[in-house]
Every structure is written in C-alpha cells, then in structure tokens.
Design goal:
The complex is a heterodimer of chains A (160) and B (157). Chain A has one helix at 18-33; strands at residues 37-42, 48-50, 56-57, 63-67, 73-82, 91-97, 100-101, 108-109, 117-125, 131-141, 148-159. Chain A has 160 residues and is mainly beta. In chain A, the strands form 2 sheets. In chain A, strands 3, 4, 6, 7, 8 and 10 form a 6-stranded antiparallel beta sheet that branches. In chain A, strands 1, 2, 5, 9 and 11 form a 5-stranded antiparallel beta sheet that branches. In chain A, a hairpin with a 2-residue loop joins strand 6 (91-97) and strand 7 (100-101). In chain B, the strands form 2 sheets. In chain B, strands 1, 2, 4, 8 and 10 form a 5-stranded antiparallel beta sheet that branches. In chain B, strands 3, 5, 6, 7 and 9 form a 5-stranded antiparallel beta sheet that branches. The chains are: A mainly beta (160), B mainly beta (157). The A-B interface holds A 16-18, 21-22, 25-26, 29-30, 32-35, 37, 39, 41, 43-45, 76, 78, 80, 112, 115-120, 151-152, 154, 156, 158 and B 3, 6-11, 15, 23-24, 27-28, 31, 70, 72, 78, 87, 90, 100-101, 103-113, 115-122, 125, 156-157.
Chain lengths: 160, 157
C-alpha cells in the first residue's frame, strides 16, 4: 500500500530531485492507480438470526481497514436477508465506524415476510484520520420477538 | 497508451521527453480516460430465463476487458426477477473462477412477487491482459426469468 503525499508545488528556484519525482509523481500515481481496498465477505448462508430488540453485531462483519491522510472512504455493502414482518416487526440494520453509530435510526428496514431479499448500500465517509479504523454492521428486530436473519454479506471499503 | 508502472527516478539521470511521456503523461491520461469500462443494460423484460438447478451463465452478462498490470476489477450487477417462489441464486465468475459460496453463491432471493437483486465485488489484483467477467444464476426449482439487468465492469482507479 502506498500513501498519499501532498504534492509539492514547484517553483523556479527548485531543482526537482529524485525525492520529488519519486514521492510526488511515482508514489502518488501508484496511490491513485491502486486504491487501498479492504474486503470482507461471508457467503455461506448462515450469518446470524436474532430476535434482539437492541442492536447485535452481524457476525463476522467487524472489518479493520487503514487509510492515508486526507482520505474519504466509500463503503459498499451487499446483504442477503430474510425479514419477518409478523405483527409489523422488521429488521433494522445500522453500522458503526470506530464504534460510532453512523445512522442511529438504521440504514435498512425490510418488509417482505419470509422471503430472502438482496440489498445493496453505498456509503461515503469523509473526515477520518489517517491510520487504522474499524467498520461493523449491526441488526435488531423492531419488536424483540420476530426472528430476523442475515444469510450473506459482502463489505468492500475503498479509499478515495 | 497503456499503463506503465511508474519508474523510480535517480538524481543523475537525464529526464527526457520519452520518460516523462511514458511515466507521467501517459499514466495520467490512462487514469483519466483510458482505463477500460463496459456495461450491459437490458430492460426488454425478458433478459434471461433458466430452470437450471446448477449455475449457468446469464448470457447477456459477459464482459471482457483488457487491463493493465495488477488491475482490480469493480463489478456491479443489479436486476429484477419475475414472480415465483423458487430461490434464485447469483454469483460472478472471473476468468472461469466462481466467486462466493458453492451452494449459496453471492446473493439470493425468493419472493413470490417480482423482486430485485444487487451484487457488488472488487477483485483481487489481476495480471495484465484479457479478463472475462460473467454473471451466473440458478434456480431451486421451476423456471425464473430475469426481466431487467444492469451489469458494469471497470478497471478500478
């Protein structure tokens, strides 16, 4: 993984040397060409089933990733889920970055009882400091009774 | 102009127009304009039907790109499936190698009404050359029809 170096502005009095060419041109070009991507998937069909009325971690979704300074990340999420809407219940999903809930009301609710659904979400997160971070998804059942199931997930985190 | 792995410069070398064109100009142009991208969009309400209980190619959804070295492919597919209670399962194949779970693929749906699916994937780094990405589908029983499809593959930058 290369890291982004803020490009040096050149002036007439500067003689470009190998450091400038390698850090400003070579390494930044490599950074732009080969974005830092983190992938975490579970496709086996049995990720988690829960009746919890409070958020519980979607098993295995905790994803560690690192970014350079000044970066934004795009987070691509795919889920295969079977909601249970009996009595107006529904699954509610959210996610946390570094332990902070990004969408406290949840980013996803589904209403098709007993049928597996395929959904996708793209989320932009700016303002993260350079270094290591965590991403984790959570699910709850709105009535604390009906069973909500996640069968599969795919998480891709792309530094841009 | 293809992508050229950027050279490591040294203080003693003469910076020629060829070096700058190959290592700077050409690569900037590649990242801005030339990285390959291709899409299949089919909305004619009868994209593909199958009764196969093992994965088969969704025939319109096949894209071949010629990439630079260590390219990562960004793959996006979404579509709608006609009503029917049998489970429809989806997965991508890259150069003949299936992704996801052998049984459950990468996503599946089973809804007695029309429903949609969505599937994203970013590949590992691939070698320079030709790469083919396909979408595959199978059904648990009966026949299901894909009514609409959007399938896009591009070399990530």
């Amino acid at each position: 993984m290369t890291t982004w170096a803020v490009p040096q502005e050149l002036a007439d009095s500067i003689v470009p040397d190998q450091f400038i060419f390698n850090s400003v041109i070579r390494d930044n070009m490599l950074f732009l060409k080969y974005r830092n991507i983190t992938r975490n998937t579970d496709y086996d069909g049995t990720v988690i089933s829960t009746t919890s009325i409070t958020y519980v971690s979607i098993t295995g979704s905790l994803t560690n990733f690192s970014i350079s300074s000044g970066s934004t990340v795009l987070i691509f999420v795919n889920l295969t889920m079977t909601p249970n809407n009996t009595g107006s219940a529904s699954p509610i999903c959210t996610f946390k970055i570094d332990g902070v809930d990004q969408i406290p009301g949840g980013f996803l609710r589904l209403f098709t009882t007993g049928f597996a659904q395929s959904v996708g979400v793209v989320y932009e997160k700016a303002g993260l400091a350079a270094g290591a971070h965590t991403f984790e998804m959570f699910i709850s059942s709105s009535d604390g009774v009906q069973t909500q199931t996640v069968h599969q997930f795919a998480i891709h985190i792309l530094e841009v | 102009m293809p992508w050229t792995p950027p050279r490591t410069w040294t203080n003693t070398e003469r910076v020629t127009s060829k070096l700058l064109n190959d290592n700077v100009y050409g690569n900037i142009e590649y990242m801005r304009y030339l990285a390959p991208i291709s899409s299949v969009v089919d909305t004619d309400n009868s994209v593909f039907s199958t009764s196969s209980t093992s994965f088969v190619d969704v025939t319109p959804a096949s894209i071949t790109l010629i990439t630079g070295a260590t390219a990562q492919l960004f793959i996006f597919a979404s579509g709608t499936i006609s009503p029917g209670s049998a489970t429809c399962t989806f997965r991508f194949m890259i150069d003949g190698v299936a992704l996801g779970d052998a049984t459950n693929g990468q996503a599946y749906v089973n809804n007695s009404e029309a429903c949609s699916f969505t599937l994203d994937y970013i590949s590992d780094a691939l070698s320079a050359g030709s790469h083919t990405v396909k979408l595959q589908m199978k059904v648990a029983s009966g026949t299901r029809t894909m009514n609409m499809l959007e399938f896009t593959v591009f070399e990530g930058l």
